C-alpha cells in the first residue's frame, strides 16, 4: 500500500520541497504573517518533524502545503510538481497524493457515517479497489468485522485516530502530514500511536511530516527536526544532533522544558519566567526571539538572522549560536 506517483523515486530522493513559504491572514485592519519565508525539503522515506510553541506557524505551514488554503506566496513542489497555482481537477488529483491526519481525531471524523464508509470515501471517489479498506483497518490494528459497521462516537480517542490513519492509508498517498496527531490523547495512547506510525512507515515506506509542540514527542519519531518560532525557522538538524548539540537559544529553551529532558541550562541562560511569545501581528524587529533571548544584543534588534550551515546537515538562524557540544 504505497503511492504509485513516486515509483521513479528511491529512498533519499527529494519528495517535497518548500521554498520561501509565506502565509498571511487578516486580523481586523491588519494582517498576521503566520509563516514567513520558511524553506525545507523532505526525502522519500523520511520523517521530518516540525516543532514549536502554539502559534509558531507550524500548522499553517502544513495546511499551506496541502493548499488548504494555498500559501500567500512561495513554492511547494511534490516530486517536482508545483502545487501552488493548481486549481480544479489538477488540484483535486493532487490531493490523492497528499493526506493529512489531524489533531482532534473525533471531530475530524463524520459522526453520522460508519467507519467503513469513512475509510472507503477516498477509494470510492477514485474508483480504487474496495479491499484497501479492510487492509487499511487491519494495518492500524482494527478488525474490520467488528469495527467497520460502527460509528466514531463508539470508539475512544486513540481508536478514532487509528481510523483517521486508516482513512489516509487507503488512498496510498506519497506523503502524510501529521498535524499534532497525539496531542489530544493520553500519554499511554500517544506511545501506541507513535509506535503505530513508525511501524506503518517501515512497512509501507511512508514519508511523513510530523508536527508537534512537544520536543520530547517529536525527537523520537523524526529523522530531522525543524524548529519554528513566530513564523520563522530557527534551526534544522538531525534529531539526535538537535538533542545533543542544540545551537539556537530557542531550541535550548524547548529542550530545557522537557520533563527529565537531556538539557539543563545554566542560570544565565534560563529564559525569563514571563517570556511569552510576542504577538504575530507585530513581531519584534531583527531576530524574532530576541525579546526572550539571554544572548540578544544590538545586532539582534536590527539584523534578521538568515539560515546558514553550522555543521553537515545542521542549519541555524542565529547571530550567537552555541556551538560547543553539550
| SS class | alpha/beta
Number of helices in the DSSP assignment? 11
Percentage of residues in DSSP E strands? 15-25%
Within the largest sheet, what's the order of strands?
Answer: 6-7-8-3-9-10-12-11
CATH class of one domain: Alpha Beta
Major β-sheet, in short?
Answer: 8 strands, mixed
What would CATH call the architecture of one domain?
3-Layer(aba) Sandwich
Cα(first) to Cα(last) distance is 42 Å
CATH superfamily of one domain: P-loop containing nucleotide triphosphate hydrolases
Note the overall shape: globular
How many strands appear in the DSSP assignment? 12
Unreliable parts: none
Mean pLDDT: 88
CATH topology of one domain, by name, is: Rossmann fold
Element string (H = helix, E = strand): EEEHEEHEHHHHEHEHEEHHHEE
Rg: 20 Å
Describe this structure in words.
There is one protein chain. This protein has a domain at 14-44 and 53-90 and 217-320: Rossmann fold (3-Layer(aba) Sandwich). The longest helix has 18 residues, at 187-204. Helix 3 runs parallel beside helix 6. Helix 7 links the parallel strand 7 and strand 8 (208-212). It has helices at 58-65, 88-95, 115-126, 131-139, 144-147, 157-169, 187-204, 215-221, 239-244, 249-256, 298-302; strands spanning 14-27, 30-43, 47-51, 73-78, 81-82, 98-101, 175-179, 208-212, 224-229, 232-238, 308-311, 314-316. It has 326 residues and is α/β, with parallel strands linked by helices. The strands form two sheets. The protein has an eight-stranded mixed β-sheet, sandwiched between helices. A four-stranded antiparallel β-sheet has the order 2-1-4-5. It holds the Pfam family ABC_tran. Belongs to the ABC transporter superfamily. This is Peptide/nickel transport system ATP-binding protein. Residues 274-283 have a biased composition (Pro residues). Residues 16-255 form the ABC transporter domain.
